[in-house]
Amino acid sequence: MEISGRQRLPTSPGTLPNPPAAANAPIPKRGWGALVGLILVLLVIGSGALWVKQRRAAAVGSSASPGQRGPGGSPIPVVAGTVGQKDVPIYLDGLGTVQAFNTVTVRARVDGQVEKIAFVEGQDVHAGELLAQIDAAPFQAQLDQSVAKKAQDQAQLTVARLTLQRNATLLADKILSQQDYDTQKATVEQFAAAVQADEAAIDNARVQLGYTKITSPLDGRTGVRIVDQGNIVHANDATGLVVIAQLRPISVLFTLPEQNLGQIQEQLSASHQLAVLAVDRDNRTTLDEGKLAVIDNQIDTSTGTIRLKATFPNEQFHLWPGQFVNARLLVTTRKAGTVVPASVVQRGPDGSYAFVIKEDLSVETRPVHVAHIDQGEALIDSGLRLGEQVVVDGQYKLQPGAHVMISTGNPPARTAQSHEPGASRGGAAPN
To answer: What domains lie within the chain, and their CATH numbers?
Structure first.
């Protein structure tokens, strides 16, 4: 029999109907929770992947054009300088010690009591000027005694010569024997020798008397007085009376590495008198300018250095014995050298380079060969041309191709300035 709707299957009594299809079965609550968790996990993973992608894109964009712009896309401010040209002096720098040109310890040459000190400590004295007076009475008495002894012997010599003349007449008349004549002649010679000895004794006494006046042997400056007036001094005293140092001119003894010896000798062989600057320890103040005087005749094997001595006029007494100074030996001058401020030169794995500003205010790196760096200036052998603009400050933000803005808040673009001879110089070691 047909029944509208769904056909029912006959069922036997006591038998339950078949369960409904799975599609029509309700979903359990536990299944809904798992589904929601899965969706949330997928959302988190998707968001993380999108964030990582954005970060990578930003990093790629940054590395594709590093340093092209500053904050907000503006050009990077830098301080610029101009490649200049001038004569560049080449110095060799060494540590030096000032020494007096001459140093004398004034000592007594005779024994006696110091009656007078004629100098003031720290006084400038001249050669022959009186420094001290020793009691001269004993030496004057000795001189007088020698003079008297000579007068006595001279009188005896006069009598002996008269006797010899009479004996010569008697000998001619055959009245006196030859032996008596010879004896008288020997007596005359004996008295003549005695007179000569007396003259020598007088000279010695006068010398000893002269030693009682102690004078300066040279022009110089006295130091601290060692012996006071009234003391007894001796000729063999080791300390002396005072030390005199000659300060004008004055010497500076300094050392340089032995590898510089050939360059120095080459300049000296060309009949060049090498100038030396004495610079204070601050490497800024030039104390005096002198000339190279001596190159030591041997190299110090323990240090590998050569000693040199320079002489300075020291008119203003800026140099003082025992003072440490920086000695700068001028070996040559590079004519019309290419120079830039030393901060222009940068160091990289491939050597030295500089940032050059082009006409469109972008920068490029240029390899440079540096010949010498001194006093804040770099002498360039190759890599830069006269008049080019280079970056002096602000390089740490730059990459090749970056656009720059020349800053007006800093000092204007700097060009290496020349130094007048004798101007203050620092002590930067040459390359």
So the answer is: 71-88+335-415 (2.40.420.20), 92-101+247-333 (2.40.30.170), 109-134+213-240 (2.40.50.100), 136-211 (1.10.287.470)
